[in-house]
Model the fold of this input.
Amino acid sequence: MATTEVRQQGGAENGQEEWYPPSEAVVQGAHIQDWDKLAREADADFVGFWEARAKELVDWYEPWTKVLDDSNKPFFKWFVGAKTNIVHNAIDRHLHTHRRNKLALIWEGENGESRTFSYHALNREVSKFASVLKALGVRKGDRVTIYMGRVPELPIAMLACAKIGAVHSVVYGGFSTEALHGRIEDSQSRVVVTCDGAFLNGKIVELKRIADEAIKRAPIVEHVVVFRRTGHEVPMEEGRDMWWHDLMALPIADPRCKTEVMDAEDPLYLLYTSGTTGRPKAIIHTHGGYQVGVATTLQYVFDVCDEDRYWCAADPGWVTGHSYIVYGPLILGATSFMYEGAPTYPYPDRWWAMVERYGINILYTAPTAIRGLMRFGEAWPNRRDLSSLRLLGSVGEPINPEAWRWYYTNIGKSRCPVMDTWWQTETGMFMITPTPSVPLKPGSGTRPFFGIEADIVDEHGKSVGVGEEGFLVLRRPWPAMLRGIYGDPERYVSQYWSKYKDAYLTGDSAKRDKDGYFWIIGRVDDVLKVSGYRLGTAEVESALVSHPAVAEAAVIGLPHEIKGQGIHAFVLLRQGFTPSAELAEELRAHVGSEMGPIAKPEEVKFVDSLPKTRSGKIMRRVLKARAQGLPEGDISTLEE
Ligand code: WT7
Done:
């Protein structure tokens, strides 16, 4: 397909295919000018493509003996034998360049406070906290759970772990007791880093109190470091809990801390994500290949330049934040902006005010946020000067063309291409995405990134035709790929690599159009996408069943105007309990306090039975069809 072919912009109104050609101004000087040529080269030799990027974008203490070791599939290894540390590339090396005094991070609190860190200042904080962690007994390979609000100390804590070779496990601050407990327990973290609270929508999220509850259930925890953000009273347990600022004022907080020499394949972090069944699983990412993958994709897709101010509005607690707030931008030596609170606080122009205030050039967010802001109308963004913006991005779920157009027109003023990036916690980096030189179609992530081979296949692994729906798979390894599931190598193989031979199963369904553009349809497993957050039906169901009134529960996702999907629960009560509006409300609140507010069902319905197969598996598909008044499909296995 010729990317240079000029077609009419837009076109949806008159029933034509809708196209947005690349903007000359944006493509000029962009890292990738000739998409087709590079795509062809990377296709012919993907290993060579990644090797070149590894040499160009990051430094290594010692080189590799082999770029890709695929002798023990699907346990791939990248940059075998190389020595590195991602913190060397994200911080240390910049200290000897013009970037030493450049801003690495600009932060704004929801209450309007602002803090900035140069690379030099960031290095001091990271090194001091790394020394503190060492003094607390944290060693290479140990896991540290980080459960914080969106404050600069969150990336500082992550980088401090990485610097000394510890493995961070960040738990999103919107999760609650049981979600946190499960993650501390599974990762066997002896140290937890948290905050007294977080500001959100003018209120305080009680992080410390939630952490206390979770830790009560996880006796392995020896030390809790508490960063003071809100300043409200919180209980501190003698001998276990310590204030961040107290520790950082002690001589143990030595700003001279050596960056540990790591093997390229040593683990960098664990990040829990929901799968088809059971408890969330910890995805493992490493120091070596991961840094190459995130730096390359961020540079090519968002075209981050030295003078740019880049804002990824995700939460650092999700993979988007790990790869594209923390590691990617710092490796590229960029200036990253981070905001603490809600997009609509105190008014719906908060984001646009900050774009203006800090002169943001690149804004990367999620469809749910766009839809949420869109409902307040154009007047809010129009009051602000958004002329600094050059590129926009979207991630987390398919973006509906209506939201795409609103974003493109009212935020990007029809000048800024929208990079719709498809990827996953497991992939670590963008997999299907345009670059600024690619013509766009609203709702499509266009084509696979350089060196990536994506395909859409049927039940038997055969590629489906143009316009046909099938399972999205990835046929080649990539450097930022997950290295497994912590503590469960079999599950890694069975979940991702056993349905098809030699192909990674994404769990998504998709279609491809005549131009080779990919259109993601959605998850085909029991994974929900609520406001872009990934949740498993099994997790929400087990939160429901942990309530004394509930005998059985089934959860499905139904379309929701802003959230994309909303959670609907069907509950069978234990004997002695009667359905009532109060009980439904109590169950919603229970899920909120066990899992987190994002997991709260929209609605709890009481039922007398649940549709099940003869082997006792709940048929959520049938519940979903019934709830939407659609045909129930094949119900030959239904027992009910
Ligand atoms: C799932 C992965 C990757 C960062 C955030 C989500 C869906 C993600 C897109 C997109 C359509 C998307 C997929 C995928 N998804 N980005 N641009 N278009 N769908 O990471 O929580 O691991 O979720 O999010 O369904 O499988 P995650």
